[in-house]
Structures are given as structure tokens and as C-alpha cells.
Amino acid sequence: MIKYMTGRTNYEVKARITPVKIDRETESSVWVNGNRRAKESESDIFHDTWDAAHAHLLAAAEENAASARRQLERANGALGNVKGMKKPEGVKCTFTGMEYRNR
After folding, report:
1. How does pLDDT run along the chain (103 residues), one tens digit per residue?
2. Could you give the number of structural domains in the chain?
3. Is residue 88 part of a domain?
4. CA–CA separation, 73 vs 42, rounded Å?
5. Distance between CA atoms of 6 and 54, rounded to whole angstroms?
6. How many Å apart are CA 12 and CA 15, to the nearest integer?
7. In this structure, is residue 101 part of a structural domain?
8. Separation CA 66–CA 45 (nearest Å)
9. Which of 16, 29, 80, 100 qualifies as a FRET site for 94, CA 20 to 30 Å off?
């Protein structure tokens, strides 16, 4: 029987689908070369079909891209705030540096 394995490292999707010959399976495990493996672990997922594996990778990659776009929006907002800062005029310095040492 063949299953299709997808993997990830540090929550990053690997663009790879590996066909794996399994000896047997239960609801939560597969046996590969006599070794029991979880069907779904932190690093690998075994799928019944190549199409299911591909759909999983596509959904994960789309979520990663959406997350990166949200992070870029926040970074661009912070950049705009810094660029928009104006130097105040007529302000006297009251900071002595002791405020940090006394924390």
C-alpha cells in the first residue's frame, strides 16, 4: 500500500510529496519497514492520495504567505510611523540616564 508523506520544519512547509510504501496501518499509525510511525506528527503527515497531500501543502503554503503579508503590513506601518516623526523644537532635555540604572 502507498501513502504520500508531506513534511515541515519549524512550521515551514517543505514543497515535497514523498510516496512511501507502508506495511500496514491503523486509524492513527502506519508501519514503514516494520517501524511504527504516527500518521500525523510535528514533522510529517501521511496522506491517502497524492491529491490530498498536494491540497494540504497548498493550504499550508497559502496560510504562510498570508501570515507573511500581515507581518509585512505591520512592519510597513511601523516604518511609516518612524518616517513621519518630526524633531520637536524648543524642548529641553530632562533625561539624565539615571532612570535606567535605578530600575
Report:
1. 999 999 987 777 888 999 999 999 999 999 999 999 999 998 899 999 999 999 999 999 999 999 999 999 999 999 999 999 998 888 777 777 665 665 5
2. 1
3. no
4. 29
5. 8
6. 9
7. no
8. 22
9. 80
Cell numbers describing residue 34? 516494520
Residue carrying C-alpha cell 494540504: 56
Rounded to whole angstroms, the Cα distance separating 77 from 82 reads: 9
Segments forming the whole domain that contains residue 10: 2-83
Grid cell, residue 76, equals 510597513
- The cell for 42 is 510535528
Whether 32 is covered by a domain: the verdict is: yes
Q: What is the DSSP string of 49-92?
A: SHHHHHHHHHHHHHHHHHHHHHHHHHHHHHHHHHHT----SSPP
